[in-house]
Every structure is written in C-alpha cells, then in structure tokens.
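[09:14] KT: can someone run the structure on this one? pasting the chain below
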Amino acid sequence: MAFALLFCAGIQASALDGIYLDLKAMTYTEARAPEIVDDIIFFTYQSETSARHVAVRFAHEGFSILHSYARNEYGVFVLDYPVPEETSVLRYRIVVDGLWMRDPKNPSMETDRMGEEFSVLEIGRQDLFKANPRMQKDGSALFTFRGSAGKDIALVGDFNNWDPFLDRLNETEDGVYEISLRLRAGTHGYYFLIDGDRRLDPRNYETMETGDGLVVSVFSWPPVRETAPTAVSRAKPSTGHH
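[09:31] RB: done, structure tokens below
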C-alpha cells in the first residue's frame, strides 16, 4: 500500500490512471531501457549492491529537480515520468545514493565538454500523440499541456472571443496543466498563451488560418476522430462559446 501511494503521487493528470501505473511498476522484474507507454516514460534501475536511493535529473530542467524512483517487490527501482511536450530529445543522468551516472540500461549517450556522460532518449512524437481536446464523461472538453513547471498558461480561442485572460489552465502537477470547458458543436480555433507567448497546441497537428491571417490550432467538436490530420484547413472557426 505504501508503494502504491508513493508511486501514484505524481501522475494525477496522466492518460494512464494511478492504478495502471502501480500495476505497471510491479511488472518490472529487472531493469531495462526506458520504456514509453502512452505519454509516460518508465525509467528503471537495479543495482548489484543495496542502493538506498535512486533518482534522476533532466537537462531540460537544468538538472535542478530530483525525481525519486520507488522500489518494487523485485528490488527494481521504477520511476514514471510524463513526457514533456516541449522536449523531443530527453537528456538525463541517474543519481544513485548521491553518485551521478548515466543510465546503464540506456545504450544511447553523449559526453559534454567536461567529459561527463549522460543518457539520451529520443521521443517519438507520432507514437505519443493524443489529440486535444478529449471528451470527459460529463461531456466537457479537457485540454492538457505538459511543459516546464511554474508557467502562466491560458487557452485562447473563438469559444471565449479570443480573450487571453478568461480561461487559465491549472497546474495540477509540476509541468502538467489542464482546463475543462463546455463547448458548442462546431469547428473551433485556438492557441495557448504561455507567459505571454502564443503557441500552437503540440497535441494537435491540425491548424487553420483565421480571417485575419492568424494560424491557430483547430478541432471539431464533438470529436469525430482519434487523431488529427496534418493538413492545413482555411475554414473560419466557429464562434460558439463555452
């Protein structure tokens, strides 16, 4: 029970629920190369000696955050980590009882100017793609954004009259942001405003050009497909409100 609480504490907003994460962690009988399942990366570590604490630090976080593994019943340390949407190549180092090292189960590595080795994991975006928004059981539209922690993120679209202040995302976990809206049926254009910078949705490959020439992300509501095409549409977005 204690392991379940530790392991599930960090992934409330993941596409995989906490029960699945806990079960997945318990299936590792030995350490292996990082494994990507849905939008979660599973890191594992196993030591021939009795390691007490295993963690990982990532380059895209400036190696400033220590993410601790949890040990399962087979003695394998396991960490579930949400795929960061702003990073296509993940560079990291494992920290075992205070000692920094590259991941011994990941053959892909690089060396910096100081001769320090760190592990490299390329993220296949096509395999991880899950379109925004996703319909919830209550019929609302859930938008998710993953990136760096501590950001000010707003959802701006035709459904809120392109108001940059009305619909702000909540940071439900470090670097995980969400918002649920009620939407009218139709085609909607939108973008994310991140610390004042406009960004297309990295979870949605479909875009359109608005009447004033602005390229935005676009989707049809209610959803009619699991994944969005890459073609660019020039249809004018709906003016439905949430």
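[09:33] KT: thanks! Confidence is low (pLDDT under 50) at residues 1-17, 225-242.
[09:34] RB: yep, looked fine to me
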